[in-house]
Amino acid sequence: MAITEEAGVTRREVVAGVAALGMVGASRAVAATQSDPLDSHDAMGLAELVRKRQVSPGELLEAAIGRAEALNPRFNFLAQKHYDYGRAAIARGLPPGPFSGVPWLLKDLNTYIAGLPTENGSRFFKGYKLEVTSELVRRIEKAGFVIFGKTTVPELGLTGTTENKLTGDTRNPWNPGHITGGSSGGAAAAVAAGVLPAAHATDGGGSIRIPASCCGLFGLKPSRGRVPMGPPRTEGWGGLSVHHAITRSVRDSAAILDATQGPEPGSRYAAPTPAESFLAQVGKAPGRLRIALMLNAPAGSPVDPECIEAARKAARLCESLGHHVEEAAPKLDMAAIGAAGFALIGASVAADMLDRARATGIAIGPDVLEPITLGFVGYGEKVAGMDVVRANNALQAAAITMAQFMARYDLILSPTLAAPPLELGRINLTPDVDFMAWGQRTAAFSPFTQIANMTGQPAMSIPLAMSSTGLPIGVMFMGRYGDEATLFRLAGQLEKATPWQDRRPALQGE
User: Fold this and answer.
1) Residues 35, 40, 122, 207: which is the catalytic one?
2) Is-catalytic flag, 122?
3) Residue 310, number of CB atoms within 10 A of its CB
4) Is residue 371, in this structure, part of any structural domain at all?
5) What is the C-alpha end-to-end distance of the chain, expressed in Å?
6) pTM of the predicted model as reported, rounded to 2 decimal places
7) Which of 40, 100, 107, 223 is catalytic?
8) Is 207 a catalytic residue?
9) Per residue in 311-321, pLDDT tens?
10) Alpha-carbon 242 to chain mean position
């Protein structure tokens, strides 16, 4: 319910609630109330308050800053504080976009504001600045979002947990001894902790969906080419990586994608232009969908029974809503796909680190890079040109196989992850095992998510389950290339059938 004077709540009461949030930061009621906008409203709801002058952009920003300052010492989700940048944007006057006045955090990974640092979770990039602003940032600001910082990432986004030697460990608001996921773990922690209702995220192997699953949030990975990646480059990891957001609500994800999607200058490719807005899909009936239920990890690694049951329960829910669900899975050459991904990522990491070393004169070594990152550099230096071509060929073959399989199904339903959120220290970049063993351990935790990156398809993690120990468990739906619309229709239907926005962590110390 929007906060309006007709509802018996005045602007003065809203402002008082926002001011209190800014002062106490972490003091959040178990049940959100009308006077707590950051708790009771998603990003679209906050924008509506601003449009109705129930609250000002400055008041929302200071409230979000207050929460960030109070909660960051516990959960460690902030990599950069750009508070004055946000205040200056408001002082200049915000554009009348769909999210005008709503606070926003960028991910501290290959996303640039001219003159401000982007450190990529790495000591090797400490203080790194470019005199270029990413096209995505321009679109985010045109939509009216107020950027006030950047969120933590693992070094170079290379793993499914957000732990690094530069900023430390990011901790899960549901249980601080467990991971938030990665590489968008700082974004997920900030949203889960209630600092703001949505934040920027990227996904090169599951990095939107993994933290969404770990932190009980909605996370959609768009189709390859849907959202701008540059400048300075319009492709990440050979096309594996994409940008979008982690959100509490489905409609926020859809509306943010509407505001940011579309071709960018110089890009090699772009996803098909949607016939209608993504936001318009959220309330539409999806029709009777044909859903393939994939319970086994594609490469055969074990899956926790609670994650399997979460997917089965989601399948039963879909059937109750009129959809057809049957167990089926595409026959993919996972050895070839895995090797292709490692080749592309290793070569990309090696090239970037060698370029950084030449530019700075700083030698590559353990003083500036973590052990697994050094492993990627060593591996990538041995990747030949023909290896890259063969890797690209393998991924094209996988995309064709998936397209043929999905001629029979609208969606594939699976667990998002093979286990509930792990304890900290299990899959970080300074492990107790060697490079290859680490790769096997990490891939076994997220065996389902990487397929969509390899093939370019859209996929979403939905927070439909909880573990027996009180940790979130997501389920994943993967759609046809270019068809985010079907995902948003189903997500809206599931959100209405099983609402999750009021399911929040009971923050210690409240």
Assistant:
1) 207
2) no
3) 26
4) yes
5) 25
6) 0.94
7) 107
8) yes
9) 999 999 999 99
10) 10
